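Q: What does the predicted 3D structure of Transposase look like?
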Amino acid sequence: MKNRQKEKATVKAASLEKEVSKLKDENAFLKQLLKDNPTSLKVEKIIHITERIGSGRSDDPVREVHKLWTNDGKFITSLTFYPV
């Protein structure tokens, strides 16, 4: 009976150690995110569509356009990235 209780305690201690390690990693991640003193931080799911447009001519270079939408279909923004 004592061995069984000892095994359970060992398993529980190992589980707690993993949880503490996970919390430390999350804390380090949050500290990095907050390093630049943001005014707001939200984690949200979005729809991200990327398309390549342009003919490749000097007056119409090929570029990537990123369009962001909410999950309920509201347009957020469009970002255009030109090649360097």
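A (community wiki): The structure tokens above were generated from the sequence. The chain has a mean pLDDT of 84. The chain has two domains: 1-39, 44-84.
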